[in-house]
Amino acid sequence: MADFTIYEYTGKLTDFREGPFMTAFPKLWVQPEHDAFSPTGPSAAKRIPVVLESGGLFAVNLTASIDVVPPTRYSLRCEWLDSDGGTPIGWAQWDFIAQPGGGPISTMPNVMTRVWYATTQPPVDRAGIYWIHPVTDEVREWI
Fold it and tell me: What is the pTM for the complete model shown?
């Protein structure tokens, strides 16, 4: 079986004053955009709960977006709950591409990019591929 790596993605949930809003009873999770295949088999696009530490810090372990087929982006979603902690009263969502190596989610792009580095044209007819010619350094967007 193929070997692949799980990376840690981190962040800090804050308000616009950079203050934590733990008193808003946030519930946080990450969810892949769609089902995919990892190197070990099928992977379901189910919610992955994320634990918030004091001050709003969090970390979640994920497979990099390009390590699954088809590549998928993730959504980090937060619902804040009423004082009873049961009824959602608001939500926010951030989409991101989990880059190999992990790191802060705030530095991850939210648009999937495909690059083909070869002297021959890309082997698939798919829009959005950047073709880089290794000899001429010419870059073309494959449409």
Answer: 0.72
Under DSSP, the state recorded for 47 is: -
What is the C-alpha separation between 135 and 124, in angstroms, rounded? 21
| pLDDT (tens digit per residue) in 27-51 | 899 999 999 998 888 999 999 999 9
Rounded Cα–Cα distance for residues 123 and 49 (Å): 38
Q: What separation in angstroms does the CA of 133 have from each of 22, 33, 73? A: 50, 31, 27
Residue 27's contacts (CB-CB under 8 Å, 6 or more residues apart) are: 78, 79, 80, 81, 88
- SS3 for 1-32 is CCCCCEEEEEEECCCCCCCCCHHHCEEEEEEE
Domains in the chain: ranges and CATH = 6-111 (2.60.40.1120), 113-143 (no CATH)
